[in-house]
Amino acid sequence: MRNLFLLRGCPASGKSTFIKQNGLEPYTLSADNIRTMYQSPKLGIDGKMGITQSNDGEVWELLMYLLENRMKKGELIIIDATHYKSELLNRYKSFCSKYRYRAYVIDFTGVELDELIRRNNARDEYKQVPEEVLHKMFETFKVDTEVSKRFNIITPDEAVSMIKNKCEPFDFNQYDKVIVFGDIHGCYAPVKQYFDNNPMVDNNFYIFTGDYIDRGIQNKEVLQFLLTIYKNKNVLLLEGNHEIWLRKYAHEEDMNIIPRDDIEVLKQYMGIKKVKAMLNSRKIPNIFLQHTRVQLEDLDKKGLRQLCDKLGQMAYFNFGDKTYLVCHGGIPVLPSLTISTQEIIRGVGKYENIPDLYESWCKNTDENDVLIHAHRNIFDIPIEYNSKIYNLCDEIEYGKNLRVIEINKDNSVKPILIKNEIYNQDLSKDFKPNGKTEFDSQVKDEDIIKELEQSKFVQIKTFDNNIKSYNFTREAFKKDKWNHITCTARGLFVDGNTNKVIMRSYNKFFNWGQVEATKSHSLAKTLVFPVKAYRKENGFLGMVSYNPYTEDFLIGSKSTIKGEYADMVRTQLYNTLGDKLNDLKQYVKSNNCTMVFEVIDNDNDPHIIKYSKPKMVLLDVIKNQFEFQKLSYDELCIVAQKFSLEVKQLEYTFNSWQELYDFKHKQDVSYDVRYEGWVFEDQNGFMTKYKTRFYNFWKFIRGVKQSLQGRHEVRKSFQTKEEVQAYNILKRFTPEELQAMSILDIEDIFYNEYNPEG
């Protein structure tokens, strides 16, 4: 929080000891420490080593630079220096005013001179100061009385109590109701609607959680309203992350520099690649400059400065039988001075960490402690998450709702949603995250072929009878060049004589979090529930269709109908189907479809997961056309039963985002599931893959094995003891021995040694 503690006292008065004994080093800027960074202890004419002050110009310039950077984040800061002259304390005043800090002087001047001399002589040689310096400073402190007139003077014990203990809540029980408003974002109409129906009264307390401006089209009206109420004793305006621009505007500061923290937020919201491209082109979207500033030109900047100076960090209060913490971003524990203002405003963790934060809050606080926040809600969490947590963010600027809660003294809570009808629909296209890209079924086949042929990220192979395969290139994979063409070109086979699809696999789909459309915040908005979870087997894709030129099966894997993988598909198909082969051939011919299998053969194609015997699992039956279309799972099961085929397993059905996210969160930290993972599929057929921790662990170790057997340097860093244990096993073997072993062999050794029961 915005508190600055200035230590004051002679050398050897106990300042640095106080810092060390109370574990306050991370919050402290020490002049002596910076001096020793600039220059090591220097030999004096008395033959003793000592800290030199010859670089103090640079030392204090650096210290003030570091101080300002910490102040920008609103961190608790302690300055360890003597501050033996009161005028030396004045150097902090401008920063305190600019960043709205409260300064305290921690007084160490009560130590007697004899004790100072004794302590000084007991210090390490380089830390000792000449005795005459101690005498001079001691006398200066005795006569300098100006400090007490200008600063809050506290004792070391008082400082520890303030810093170490949790903040004390205010008592709001003199009010009938406490009313809390979520993000407004320049949308005045819903605010006006609330107060038209519920006029402001003195016996209620009103809290606004911040983000009053940007994205909306009524920024001026919002600020005019706030200017009329912000001085009221029963009104508290909290600071949101967007108010930094209002403050800069009001103080006429440079707004063309995008703060690093804002860039990080944009990366979470819009994706790293998109933001990097914006940085390279110098086109980072500053919403305030582009959309808001022009709406504020008629407002008095002095009034706006006064408004900004009144913004609070949080509301922490007792009301009825409960204790409430209201802030903009949300934090996982009750507040203390060591929490930075930036964390209170922007929230702890990333946007997608909200469920984790809520779990921590419920774990770290008592039953009657309630968190209320706004700012982030990419998962469309309702107002009342549970009895301990309320979320007041609802994309009001994009036509959703102003969220309000009314808290009564009996601690009953009334949630209120007020629809915002006045917003800029075009703006949402610029700043909302991208969702799923649907295939355009209106595009003609010949146009798709043309795009496939012209794309530099699609490789083409031609086989007998002018059958062509299209598959995305390695470059497309490495550089994430994904669009409707490269995603379609995944095991796609076309009759070059007719330009019709003759066999096909899935469109390329992605792991959870791999691309923007599969990041948690996008999935939360785009998945249509219920969502099905199918077990993901660990083999390779095999395709079976009909070849009109040979009047036989057309069998392929990946991008080819020739080679060992296609042969393995054929072998398994013939071994599995037996006397039903002709029936299956007739089925794929008459239905003009492709049967897609997961083909598993540990002997000839070992992967991560061990299977007792070779097998093929029917994944889907896909129509032979450019637009992706497949049988429903019920239809698929009927086909599988008809031909005595093993079919993919439907393991879970999730009816809400929360159910799905909770499941994923549990799997993220568990090694219990020892297969590859799941394919999640929503009601619109959108799919994303999720790999288990077990699978990812052994995939990582397989990479280490490949490096060792190739006599290459292992450039991977080990994060867990299990990774180190597996690495130690690999190191027992020569490169030649590792070459002859599969990763399954290493797994056997690992679990025999470290998990005998597993």
Describe this structure in words.
The chain is α/β, with parallel strands linked by helices. Helix 28 packs parallel to helix 29 (721-730) and helix 29 crosses helix 31 (743-754). The chain is globular, with a radius of gyration of 33 Å. Residues 428-440 have low confidence and may be disordered.
The assigned structural class equals: alpha/beta
Proportion of residues in extended strands: 15-25%
Radius of gyration: 33 Å
Largest sheet entry: 6 strands, mixed
Helical element count? 31
Mean pLDDT: 90
Helical amount among residues, as a percent range?
Answer: 25-40%
State the end-to-end distance. 48 Å
Within the largest sheet, what's the order of strands? 8-12-13-14-16-15
CATH third-tier fold name of the largest domain: Purple Acid Phosphatase, chain A, domain 2
Task: Note the overall shape.
Answer: globular
The number of domains = 4
Tally of DSSP β-strands: 32
Which residues form runs of ≥5 with pLDDT under 50?
Answer: 428-440
CATH homologous superfamily (4th level) name of the largest domain: Metallo-dependent phosphatases
Assign the CATH class of the largest domain: Alpha Beta
CATH-level-2 architecture of the largest domain? 4-Layer Sandwich
